[in-house]
Design a protein that fits this description.
Blueprint (H helix, E strand, L loop, with lengths): L4 E5 L4 H13 L2 E5 L21 E3 L6 H8 L6 E4 L8 H4 L1 H21 L6 E7 L8 E3 L5 E2 L6 H5 L8 E3 L14 H20 L2 E7 L1 E3 L12 H10 L5 E2 L6 E2 L1 E3 H13 L8 E3 L5 E2 H12 L5 E2 L10 E2 L4 H6 L8 H21 L1
Parallel strand pairs: 1-2, 1-4, 2-3, 4-5, 5-9, 9-14, 10-13, 11-16, 12-17
Antiparallel strand pairs: 6-7, 6-8, 12-15
Helix pairs in contact: 1-8, 2-4, 4-6, 7-9, 9-11
The chain binds nicotinamide-adenine-dinucleotide.
The site of nicotinamide-adenine-dinucleotide (NAD) has 29 residues, from helix 1, helix 4, strand 5 and strand 10.
Length: 358
């Protein structure tokens, strides 16, 4: 039987490391392509979480000659596309970088496949809840679903966080319109469109997973632009009171990396067609304040405080329905926010102990 290979772009990152051991049991060869972005990787060392046997190629997905080098040795049956610039707020001040990596990078990968007549059976893209932006809200008067769009600078400056006379509702890929409010979200939506168009033309099966707020062991502890849970843990560990933006009542679906990794693997294993995006979260919403209080309690830090600051591009609420995904994939979530945070804390403690020893 011919050897089966898998390419993972962004292969040294948080999510890739979490799926790498499972990929090694499913493929004869797993190649991680990663340019080791300095904002994500404090050192240029191979990440400890990347499973043994995964070949790490330190190359940039935007570079055509890098792809020529990769495809000269690997004919992937499956591609997991994770390489991205992921800073929601940062994408508003560094739009070019986000657009280049996320949009041009995806196109460069697909052009390389076309150039080398490589047609993977499946390409899985990790997209994001950011594609929904503020999502749908229910009109309190008549129950209709409205799309209020953007929270303007004026509204935020006045401290008007919510949309008046409307209640937020969870997003659902089958129903919620995509109205991204950050450049990052817009690039993730564009990635989806690019993938679907290319895959239809070439006969590849596209799989798009829209991930909620992923946290957990392996997430960069030094990247200041992403990973609010890690950031809160870093602050609480120093004994600081966690500052809460807006009024702290923004809702998020915090999903542990272990559950996300299981969803990605289930999607790759799935024998059904997966023609539409799937939402990946816990299906439960927690406020930022709730998460911060849990983290403060775990570290014995003082109570979090509302600081009144806010960030352009942040959405008020982001959580999703996972019913359709549960029906489609052989997958269940295993962690609540409480149990996930305990797992994260023990990983951070181990990391710090290792750093001390080194
Ligand atoms: N972590 C989350 O909460 C979350 C939520 C929704 C979607 N996602 C998506 O999942 C994917 C993976 O996210 P992650 O959390 O593992 O991020 P990460 O930052 O840990 O990993 C991304 C990796 O991509 C690499 N990379 C960046 N630009 C590259 C380039 N031009 N060429 C090659 N490699 C490059 C980085 O070095 C990094 O190792 C991203 O596409 C992200 O948009 C993540």
């Amino acid at each position: 039987m011919a050897a089966r290979s898998c390419i993972v772009t962004g292969g040294a990152g948080f999510i890739s490391c979490a799926i790498s051991a499972d990929l090694m049991t499913r493929f004869d060869r797993v190649v991680a392509v990663d340019m080791m972005h300095p904002q994500v990787h404090k050192t240029q060392d191979r990440p400890a979480g990347l499973a043994e046997g995964v070949e790490l190629m330190r190359l940039d997905i935007m570079d055509a000659t890098s792809w020529d080098q990769i495809l000269a040795t690997v004919q992937p049956a499956v591609v997991v596309h994770l390489a991205a610039e992921t800073g929601t707020g940062q994408s508003l001040t560094e739009a070019t970088r986000h657009a280049h990596t996320n949009v041009t990078g995806t196109a460069a990968m697909l052009d390389a496949f076309a150039r080398h007549t490589v047609v993977p059976e499946r390409i899985l893209l990790c997209s994001s809840r950011a594609v929904y932006g503020e999502g749908g809200w229910r009109d309190q008067a008549d129950g209709k679903i409205l799309y209020p769009g953007y929270r303007t600078r004026e509204r935020l400056a006045k401290g008007v966080w919510d949309f008046e006379a409307m209640d937020a509702i969870p997003s659902s890929a089958a129903e919620t319109r995509t109205v991204p409010t950050s450049v990052y979200g817009a690039t993730k939506l564009t990635q989806e469109h690019i993938l679907y168009s290319w895959a239809a033309a070439y006969g590849t099966t596209p799989i798009v997973l829209r991930l909620q707020n992923v946290y957990g062991p392996g997430q960069s502890l030094s990247n200041p632009y992403t990973g609010i849970v890690s950031l809160f843990c870093r602050l609480a560990r120093t004994g600081a009171s966690i500052p809460l933006y807006e009024d702290g009542r923004m809702l998020r679906d915090f999903v542990l990396i272990d559950d996300v990794a299981a969803a990605i693997v289930a999607a790759l294993d799935s024998t059904h067609a997966l023609p539409a995006p799937l939402d990946i979260g816990t299906g439960a919403a927690s406020s930022i304040a709730e998460a911060a209080h849990l983290i403060a309690a775990l570290y014995g830090a003082p109570a979090p405080h509302v600081c009144g600051l806010y960030r352009y591009g942040d959405v008020r609420h982001a959580y999703c329905l996972i019913g359709p995904t549960l029906k489609t994939l052989k997958w269940r979530t295993r962690y609540t926010l409480e149990s996930g945070l305990i797992r994260l804390k023990s990983w951070i403690d181990r990391q710090l102990a290792l750093e001390k020893e080194a």
